[in-house]
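Me: I keep going back and forth on a fold encoding question. No explanation is needed for now; the record alone will do.

Assistant:
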Amino acid sequence: MTGALSKVYFFLIGLFLALPMIVVAGVSVNEKQTLAFPPKGFSLSWYGEIFLNPEWRNALFASLTLAILSAALAVAIALPLAWFLWRRIAPWANIFQLLGIAPFTLPPVITALGLLTFWATTGFYGQPWTAVVSHAIFFVTLPLVTLSLGFTAIDRSLVEAAATMGADDKTIFRTVVLPLILPYIVSGYAFAFVLSLNEYIVAYMTVGFTMETLPIKIFNALRYGYTPTMASVTILFVVTAAVIFSLVARFGDLPKLLGAMSSDDT
């Protein structure tokens, strides 16, 4: 009986947490432009609106471009930094780790305000590439953490053996280190990509209306009313995140990625 009650309890908790998303999903398939739930009629036309309407399609393309480029730049920053920290070249190396984590630990509005002030001072405010750099700085913590976990999982004796055989640092990194940390690179990129795709405050305060991403488009469209297209965009975001994280869990070492030690490590 206790086992049955616990299952019912956790089912109710899961249902409670999923309830807002269920409502949004129901709204997204309304046949007419209404906020009704349960949905009145059934239509997937609002999902097609994302790709057929030029405004929504351009916003989707802007969001994808921003997420792809900023995630790549975040990994490009985090990889040499994590490699540097793992080798412990200098006693003050941890300062860089704190700098890498700091932007993500601050409230987003504080980071966005700092970036806004910087770009306005330098005269680059409103340039689309500033959003790429800003998102890369804001989300660099994610690949930095995953890569740091990946480096700690490397057996240092492998590196020492390669150095003993005469391999230089570049060769060691390319032939020994890189294959071992590749899953963590992909995971860090995936995390940064998904969060960049959904981020609003930093993008809005660095480029304003010069580049309208999907989150910015949603907030701008709210001024003129509500359409189920907004709900369909939300569901699209959720499905994208679920698919990406499922692939990370399926093909990556998720427990180790989250910091758990396997029985072989103890």
